[in-house]
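Service request form, structural biology core

Requester: graduate student, group of Dr. S.
Request type: structure prediction, single chain
Budget code: on file
Notes: please return the result as structure tokens.

Sequence provided:
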Amino acid sequence: MSRIGKLPVNLPQGVTVKVDAGNVVVVKGPLGELRQKVDADIKVAVEGTVVTVTRPTDQPRHRSMHGLYRALVANMVKGVSEGYTIQQELVGVGYRVEVKGQILEFSLGYSHDIHLEVPKEIKAVAEAVKKGQNPVLTLKSHDKQLIGQVAAKIRSLRKPEPYKGKGIKFVGEQLRRKAGKSASAK
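Core staff response, request fulfilled:
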């Protein structure tokens, strides 16, 4: 058995899970509603406040999907009950971000500003920065896949470089640093 797949998913208060026709799992909670199509071979059962995921055989295909769909359902349950938060730090002189509704305006040292529209499911907040501190962008959403994809897109606008560490990085991320050129000994 899959170690992850065999674990039941406990439902917090206020969260409901329903399996529709076509094996579509619908999770509703205080923060929103999420849907996930599950493979026809994998069975999702809701018994009271526990969701279990079972597979028909031990074929490699079924084994790989067993843990995957259990993790997806668990992430959906956590998302609609608690939500997900990602914080990104802009490291560099003059790097800044402004939030104007659903549009993020970045100034990242290029000759132009970058405007990025985020989906309506994501709330973005840019804290006011004190002098000498790096700006921090906070993203909040109930959809783990969507918030991760948007955070990766934002990071790709200016990835952290290995010499000075300038760029957009996740808060708490450890960067691999390199030594610069060394003076030749003569």
